[in-house]
Amino acid sequence: MWDERVPVHVAGEFYDLDGFRARRDVLRDFETAEVGDVTGKTLLHLQCHIGTDTLSWVHRGAARVVGLDFSAPAVEAARSLAADLGHGPERAAFVTSDVYDAARAVPETSYDIVYTGLGALCWLPDIRRWAETAASLVAPGGFLYLAEFHPLTEALDDATGSRIVRDYFRREAAVWEEPGTYADPDAPTVHNRSVEWQHTLGDVVSALAATGLRIEFLHEHDVSLFPRFENFEVQGDYHRFPADHPRIPLIYSLRASRADEAGHS
């Protein structure tokens, strides 16, 4: 499914790669504020897709980034985009691997920052295994940063987001058969089966805490990147509920750090 959708994403307006080549940065303002200055640091991006977020960190000053994705066409697209922007593999490398095998696949044993961007965790059945793998790649004195869509939104009705209509604690997989893609719903596609899992906020935080990382913060944001609910309004770079709608969290972000060699977080 993902392999088939890569050409659609590369050519389409959603990712707008021509625009990205010009502006070179698609990171969200809260991400850059919460991650902070990346100048001179190494960064690993897990589940990087076609690499736009990964390469944005290069343009923000990271000394070296590595992007990892299980779709070989996505990795090839990311490498091509990096080359277009003048970045060789010594500055921006991309590897094909299942995220659970990341520790064996990436070129370095640890990174100053391990980053996972929006829309990644729902594709993983085992959040504890993900946390253990991601945490193992955080260098002493480094941190993991995660931004993700808030699981509460999946319990609400799709029209107004005002009613709870689904089980927040659902554990079974949700299987979908839908043509197209979030980047182009009308795109003709053949491989349309996808499987998703819901991970509660408690599951994610507890999984990371169990690895020994120290949770520095957990923030919740009342903005989204796409029209998740039918009554959303576009406000700047984000989608939000109308002003008269009660605010609920739509995205969350967290940072979890590893102590340095001296034992300081």
UniProtKB/TrEMBL annotation:
GO terms for biological process: antibiotic biosynthetic process; methylation. Gene3D superfamilies: Vaccinia Virus protein VP39. SUPFAM superfamilies: S-adenosyl-L-methionine-dependent methyltransferases. This is Methyltransferase. Keywords: Methyltransferase, Transferase. GO terms for molecular function: methyltransferase activity. It comes from Streptomyces alanosinicus. It comes from the Bacteria. InterPro entries: Methyltransf_12, SAM-dependent_MTases_sf. The keyword Transcription regulation does not apply. Residues 44-144 form the Methyltransferase type domain.
